[in-house]
Design a protein that fits this description.
334 residues, alpha/beta, Rossmann fold, five-stranded parallel β-sheet, 11 strands, 43% helix
């Protein structure tokens, strides 16, 4: 059983309601059908079922469709969004327009008001369009100092990581994290690994240097992040700075003089900036034929997860399952 099947089984163990705002995308509609039929979660789709093109007609009887233009929630959501954001300059007319025209705002209000547990979006919208409403309405979790993101990357026939499975962070949100932010990304990613993969995370902070082999301000940033993480999050196995090969390959780690719990066995890879992370996961995905689920957010009060606009139906279903598991965990800790 591959890792996403394991996560699907975990998602099925406790019912959650996940919102898909992009009914205009055929991939989303297909993924909604699969998630519903496999009982991964209860699926809510925003839009009018009657607007589904003829060639996509199917049995959507087990999926809840909500049309913001005529929903019983709409007027209340307009009022509440206005109250939430009026101090930031949002007018009532602007709140009305957002609720009626931008389904991501509507989805966030469903979660904010307790009618749903999480959101998956981004198949045909940018990351900023997906995450901005979430940060404005749902906001960061009370115990979170930073909202970041990760990809769950599953590499076939791979001896490294956790049977070829890794968390890559941050590949989608924090552009150029400082040392404190890198340490917090490492911590959040370790927790996400535990939640999704039920095993011990070994967290490597990556660089073009291994244990002092190069000197540069970029290397110093990572070294400082390692020290912060070891001090603040000592219950997790976090180490660095490592070049990628020394982080995942035990023989290379020995050759390069990298020792300790993490060297050569990392399953959580923390990249020094967004450029490296985004390039890294796409290289593995395209050249290594890996599955990459995400970007999955961590640190938001309720799970709101983004999709790459190049995502497949399988990617969307995987993101739905991951979101459902995150939502289960939020319910436990409320």
């Amino acid at each position: 059983m591959n890792i996403i099947d394991v996560i699907k089984e975990k998602a099925k163990s406790k019912s959650t309601k996940i919102v898909l705002p992009e009914s205009m995308d055929s991939r989303v509609l297909e993924a909604a059908l699969i998630a519903s039929k496999e009982k991964i979660c209860e699926v809510i789709v925003l839009g009018d079922k009657n607007d589904i093109p003829e060639n996509l007609k199917n049995d959507y009887s087990n999926i809840t469709f909500i049309n913001p233009l005529n929903s019983e929630f709409t007027n209340s959501f307009i009022d509440k969004l206005y109250e939430l954001r009026k101090d930031k300059g949002l007018t009532y007319d602007e709140a009305k327009r957002l609720i009626l025209e931008d389904y991501m705002y509507y989805a966030c209000m469903l979660v904010k008001e307790g009618y749903a547990d999480g959101i998956v979006s981004g198949a045909c919208h940018s990351s900023s369009n997906t995450l901005r409403p979430a940060l404005q309405i749902i906001k960061a979790a009370p115990d979170s100092s930073l909202v970041s993101s990760f990809f769950l990357v599953s590499v076939p026939n791979c001896k490294y990581g956790y049977d070829g499975n890794f968390i890559f962070a941050d590949c989608g949100l924090v552009q150029n994290p400082n040392s404190e932010e890198l340490a917090n990304i490492a911590y959040s990613s370790a927790k996400s690994f535990e939640l999704l993969l039920n095993d011990t995370p070994y967290v490597a902070l990556l660089s073009h240097s291994t244990k002092g082999s190069a000197k540069h301000d970029d290397v110093s940033k990572v070294c400082e992040a390692v020290e912060i993480a070891k001090d603040k999050f000592s219950n997790y196995k976090i180490d660095g700075e490592f070049q990628l090969d020394a982080a995942i390959d035990p023989e290379v780690a020995k050759i390069k003089g990298a020792f300790g719990d993490v060297a050569g066995r990392a399953n959580v890879l923390v990249f020094p900036d967004l450029d490296a992370g985004n390039i890294g996961y796409k290289l593995v995905q395209r050249l290594g034929n890996a599955s990459a689920y995400g970007p999955i957010t961590q640190g938001i009060a309720s799970p709101v997860n983004d999709l790459s606009r190049g995502c497949s139906v399988e990617d969307i279903v995987g993101a739905i399952a991951i979101t459902a598991v995150q939502a289960q965990n939020k319910k436990i800790h409320r």
